[in-house]
Specification:
Elements (H helix, E strand, L loop, with lengths): L13 H7 L6 E5 L11 H12 L4 E5 L18 H4 L2 E6 H4 L8 E4 L2 H14 L5 H11 L8 H16 L14 E5 L8 H12 L4 E2 L12 E5 L4 H11 L3
Helix pairs in contact: 7-9
The structure holds pyridoxal-5'-phosphate.
Length: 245
């Protein structure tokens, strides 16, 4: 059962999450930093989650693929909370950290007993990862200068994109992490986000993702997700077009 993250900050709704848990709950899936909203779970959220799950046998599946793309504070991994880590599978992606999203190479961290079970599933889902990609990732890992700049690199991109967007009628609350930025277009149009996104792609030449498609029960909040993992020139050209709306 999905538990929606409420606008405008999309931080976890503790009451709704606690209420959604029942004796039939087997696992809880979280994602921080969060795609599409850019919201980040705080240390307080994680401590709360640790307490919530402590007396249960519910597993936590924590999708932390944007762990290195965070713009203030530190990433609060489930692995930092020892009791929580005992019942967690933490998922990471080399794709996001090393700018190789198409490679689909990631890793999971869990206690040995859980990992034994995880491997049985992994064996039939993925079977193996191409050897050359594994060598390339191993090589990257030996060169910290190739990834230590990642947070600062995207922080600069986010700031540039948000500053450029001031020229438009879109309204933004700066993303806390990931390379995604939500923008409210209600000053421009009252179209449904799916229609507006198609029109932007076809008529303006700027592709976005409408936020309603991420919901189990779509809400209409007039929000689009932009990706700012682009060259500065592409960001400038996109905003030049958006400023005419
Ligand atoms: C939250 C989240 N989890 C997992 C993935 C999958 O990552 P990868 O394609 O690097 O395996 C993505 C990719 O967009 C994502 O946004």
């Amino acid at each position: 059962m999905p538990v929606a993250l409420p606008a405008p900050d999309f931080h976890i709704n503790r009451e709704a999450l606690a209420a959604a848990i029942s004796p039939r709950t087997r696992a809880l899936i979280i994602n921080t930093p969060h795609n599409p909203t850019g919201a980040v779970m705080s240390a307080e959220d994680m401590r709360w989650l640790e307490n919530l799950l402590a007396s249960t046998d519910i597993f936590l599946i924590s999708d932390e693929v944007y762990e290195h793309i965070i713009f203030s504070g530190t990433h609060e991994s489930a692995l930092k909370y020892p009791r929580l880590a005992e019942q967690s599978f933490v998922i990471s992606s080399f794709g996001k950290t090393f700018h190789v999203t198409g490679w689909k190479v990631g890793y999971a961290v869990a206690p040995a007993s859980l990992m034994r079970e995880f491997r049985k599933v992994h064996q039939f889902l993925t079977f193996s990862t191409a050897t050359p990609l594994q060598y390339a990732i191993a090589d990257y890992l030996k060169q910290p200068e190739k990834y230590l700049h990642v947070p600062a690199f995207y922080h600069k991109k986010r700031d540039k994109f948000c500053a450029l967007m001031q020229e438009t009628r879109f309204r933004l609350t700066a993303s806390e992490g990931t390379y995604f930025q939500l923008a409210d277009y209600s000053a421009i149009s009252d179209e449904a986000d799916t229609d507006f996104a198609v029109r932007l792609t076809k008529e303006v030449g700027v592709a976005t993702v409408p936020v309603s498609v991420f919901y189990g029960q779509p809400k209409q909040e007039h929000l689009l997700r932009f990706c700012f993992a682009k060259t500065d020139q592409t960001l400038e050209r996109a905003v030049e077009r958006l400023a005419k709306l």
